[in-house]
Amino acid sequence: MPEAGETVTPINQARSKLSEAVRDVKNALADRDDVVVDMREAHRMRLELLASELSPVFGDVPSDIDYFDFALSSGLQPRLWIDAVSHVAMGRDRRTYRFVKDTRLGRVVLAESPDMKIVGDQVTRYVAERLVERQRLMEGGIEPIEQPKPQAEPATEIKPQADVRTRGRTILGWLGLVLVGVLAGLAVSTALFWDRSCP
């Protein structure tokens, strides 16, 4: 029973406040989702513009070469795929094109610019490099990296004996270090054993 002067809020009014709060939260989430969707669509539109800019390049690639993708993917972050390891995506500022390549050592940025033409030129160059690389592989024209030519040694010097002496010193140096390590280990072990055995 409520005491004198105390106001009681009916349960129905409390529920309506909760339903209003739930409605407000849902509206806020919907607004945020709309912003995310709008950003994604803006990214996708920019990448579509780049793809249309590059369509003559994509069209010039011979149809028998199948390791280029040239596909625009959807998702949380739309990407224009060039091949299995490289793609163009939009940067965090939503205006910068980032052309990246995944390597064994990590992701490498090949080009990054708000200017679509600069990134398009770099993609074109990348496609050309891959085509030339493929052609050289098919023709077997991979040339080994040239080693520097050894300089002529003076005839009076006897190099092999000097190398043997140097190698001998190096081996003796390593053996000496190993021996010192073994002796140090024995000394520490003996000291620990002595401490435990003596009261």
Question: What does this protein look like?
Answer:
- By secondary structure, this protein is an alpha+beta fold.
- Helices cover 57% and strands 16% of the residues.
- It has three helices and five strands, in the order H-E-E-E-E-E-H-H.
- The protein has helices at 11-60, 116-139, 159-197; strands at residues 68-73, 79-83, 86-90, 97-103, 106-113.
- Strands 1-2-3-4-5 form a five-stranded antiparallel sheet.
- Helix 1 (11-60) crosses helix 2 (116-139).
- The protein is flat and about 80 Å long.
- The chain starts with 10 loop residues before the first helix and ends with a helix.
- The mean pLDDT is 78.
Which descriptors apply to this entry?
199 residues; alpha+beta; 3 helices; five-stranded antiparallel beta sheet
Q: What's the short version?
A:
The protein is α+β, with helices and mostly antiparallel strands. The protein contains three helices and five strands; from the N terminus they run αβββββαα.
Annotate the secondary structure layout:
Layout: H1 11-60, E1 68-73, E2 79-83, E3 86-90, E4 97-103, E5 106-113, H2 116-139, H3 159-197
Antiparallel strand pairs: 1-2, 2-3, 3-4, 4-5
Helix pairs in contact: 1-2
Strand order of the largest sheet: 1-2-3-4-5
Broad structural category: alpha+beta
In whole angstroms, the N-to-C terminal distance is 81 Å
Shape verdict: flat
Average pLDDT figure: 78
The count of DSSP E runs of length 2 or more, i.e. the number of strands, is 5
Approximate helicity band = 55-70%
Order of helices and strands: HEEEEEHH
Low-confidence sequence ranges? none
How is the biggest beta sheet arranged? 5 strands, antiparallel
Q: Helix count, per DSSP?
A: 3
The percentage of residues in β strands lies in 15-25%
Provide the gyration radius in Å.
Answer: 36 Å
